[in-house]
Amino acid sequence: MDISSEMVHSLLPLFLSTVLGASMTTIGVIEGLAEATVAVTKVFSGAISDFLRRRKAVVVTGYALSALTKPLFALAASVSWVLAARLLDRFGKGIREAPRDALIADVTPDDLRGAAYGLRQALDSVGAFVGPIFAFALMAWFAGDLRLVFWVAVIPAILAVVILVRFVPEPRHPAASTEREPFSWRLLLRLPHAYWIVVGLGILFTLARYSEAFLLLRAHDVGLAVGAVPLVMIAMNLAYAVLAYPAGAAADRLGPRRLLLAGIAALILADLMLALASGPIVVFLAALLWGAHLAATQGIFAKMIAHAAPAELRGTAFGGFNLLTGLALLAASALAGWLWSTWGAAAAFLAGAGFAAMAAVALVRYGKG
């Protein structure tokens, strides 16, 4: 599914701007709304999987919906059509992700969860850089026809659903109380104080980074040809895939705070490079740092949530975390688009560096608390 999604997403910002004529602000809002849709959906899907104690059934539903929406991108005739397709696709992603992350926690010992989530991030990232490779090759083969590439992306999406249904068994349900409580917002209030500290840190981290769409737009902005833009996602996801598992394993040994600080440092440097970039090489180097930042932070937050939440509320805990950080990503992406449209690309990335510095200060204070 990552291969399919990244074949589309690595070209979608350019499709919006060059084919459909969307502005940078519009692209930022679309990307933010898409990620917010994922976040809002996760809080309910995680709670549903807690209630049903059947993680796989919920996960299959999410993957199937994402596969069914892929042809809509190839058929899109307007910005609103792309927005609808993007939201439906992200709705499917939101359905599957919190139950999947809760399932990993259910079957993994606490002292190996950093490695487990790091491995999951690494494998996700393999798909995320193979997808842009395919997009790059197909753009050359199809003479830059974006819609044909989107049609080919339908194939791996369907294969992902078939493999999941056929080969992944429904695991034993996690340990839980005998009473099954349907979702209500009161469930979030039952989560411990340590969980909400992690959520607060996650929101600050999310404000510091924007949608990866702005990486692609910056690459094109400094002169990279449209057909070569997917190479930026390849570079980012290659770094992500190589470093995610070692970072997760290191968090098991050293604790998460050091890894998160290293990730913030990588993000600040990437933002500064993107703000000052005058050619594609600098953007590629920044993309590698962006991937390193993701490797050092995303799986680590999953480990921290799994550790802070009780087993019977893990799906709800992951859903709540992703809801709030997704809303933060909506705000961050919309702000980035507005800053870019008003004051230029440098302003957008310098603002990201500023938010990252604030997150570093908060993390240091958290470590002393």
From TrEMBL:
The keyword Cell cycle does not apply. The chain crosses the membrane at residues 63-88, 122-142, 148-168, 188-210, 222-247, 259-277, 283-306, 318-340, 346-366. PROSITE patterns: MFS (PS50850). Residues 1-369 form the Major facilitator superfamily (MFS) profile domain. Keywords: Membrane, Transmembrane, Transmembrane helix. It comes from the Bacteria. Pfam families: MFS_1 (PF07690). The keyword Transmembrane helix applies. InterPro entries: MFS, MFS_dom, MFS_trans_sf. This is MFS transporter. It comes from Tepidiphilus baoligensis.
